[in-house]
Amino acid sequence: MNKLKLWLEQTMMISFAILVGILFEGAFYALTGDSLESFSVNWIQLFSFLLTGALCSIPTLLFLVEKDYSKKQFIVVLICHALGLYAIVCLIGFLFKWYTELSGFIMITIIFFMVYIFVWVVSMWFHKRDEKQINKALDDIRDEE
Which tens digit of pLDDT belongs to each residue from 28-46? Predict the structure, then answer.
């Protein structure tokens, strides 16, 4: 159940961050005076954002959950994790036509790294929050005894 909760949490965070990234992309095009006709999102692309979030959550469960890595091993796993997720995003982006030109691919790359950092920061915040709640509950139990 804990892994399912983590998978859903990661899927929602990644999908939300992708949508925010797309919002920033649209704002960037609007502020730079580019034609917004070239920037559009259809329903199948919205579905692909959710699919991307779900697929990108799987490697996180496989490689980064409840594993005891040394610092060097963790760095190597983290780099492999980031590159694997980048490959998933590039493949889904190509299949669902998130980009058609090199400039679009560069924008997707920038959005990917923004999303990757966002998800790590929010995940750490969630885990710290849960840790504080558990410690508070343990302290309350100790006080009662």
Answer: 777 877 666 666 677 888 8
Residues 6+ apart with CB under 8 A from 122: 13
User: CA 44, CA 32: separation in Å to the nearest integer?
Assistant: 27
Query: How many distinct structural domains can be found in the chain?
Result: 1
Residue 136 DSSP label? H
Q: Which two tokens stand for residue 79?
A: 């780099």
CA distances from 86 to 1, 39, 76, 100 (A): 27, 22, 15, 17
Q: Give CA–CA dist 129/78, Å, rounded.
A: 23
Q: Which domain holds residue 62?
A: 2-144
0.90 surpassed by pTM? no
Q: What spatial distance separates the first Cα and last Cα of the chain, rounded to whole Å?
A: 30
How does pLDDT run across 18-30, given as a tens digit for each residue?
Answer: 888 888 877 877 7
Band the pLDDT of 57: cuts 50, 70, 90. confident
Give the type of residue at 31: L
Q: Which long-range contacts (CB under 8 A, 24 or more apart) does 33-38 make?
A: none
